[in-house]
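FW: tagging you since you asked about this chain on Friday. Here's the raw sequence from the shared folder, copied in full. Didn't touch anything.
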Amino acid sequence: MATSADPVVLLTAFEPFGGAARNPSWDAVQAVASAWDGPGRVVVEQLPVVFAEVRAALVAAVTEHRPTLVIATGVAEGRTTVSPERVAVNIDDARIPDNAGAQPIDEPIDQRGPDGFLTTLPIKRIVRAATRAGVPAAVSNTAGTFTCNHAFYELMSIAANEGFRAGFVHVPATPESATGDVPTLPLDDLVTALTLAVRESLDPAPDAVVTGGTEH
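HL: got it, structure written out here
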């Protein structure tokens, strides 16, 4: 595993799916990596939108790069904010088929796994940093039940064994990627928010705590 003095950050994003020509999560992570000026280095890997292949792709990427931090990303058309996810749940319930034609309904991701995993990213600090930079952002308490949640769950399972910090961030559609009349954000906003997510997550300080209605 990389040391904190020389971190390796792995960003993942998905291939296009559902008839879309592009996936803004992939566009965004490539731009983050291209512009990254340290600390350490940022590497990217594209995940298949195929339930049966996601875990193997994540394991291969972690094995190759030995990251300190992994942030998986995906698009959630209809959302208006960049959304760090709080929890991955142990269920696949696909509204549409994946890119291999599979459409699991109410199936556990791991028959022997826990019901859910909590992110280890500082999601509230990420939201505050993005908001201060002028990018709409909000914590999300559901990553859905399609391949994004599947990847999030599998990632946190791997992270629990390997000991790296990890989590998932959903991004809205961009004007270039939208497949219908849905809210969009410019790609530059996604890149700004994800860059800040990396920087905040490399900071080992704990996230904000909510006590008695006060966040501090």
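FW: Residues 209-216 have pLDDT under 50 and may be disordered.
HL: agreed, and Helices lie at 24-35, 51-65, 123-132, 147-162, 187-202.
FW: great, closing this out.
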